[in-house]
Amino acid sequence: MISKMERMVKEDMAGYILEELCKSGCVLETRKETAKNVITKALVDIRKHKTKLSSNK
Residue 7: in which H helix or E strand, if any? Predict the structure, then answer.
């Protein structure tokens, strides 16, 4: 389970990644919010997957 604090950190990381993608023109201004949501979800999913792998050992 991911805590509220971890989710906030993931959202901050997503914001940074999104900024970098926008600088290089990879994300349209109209799609910024969607992109941030997708990136945040991906980071959360990676964390959940890592937790699941480590608990199966």
Answer: helix 4-23
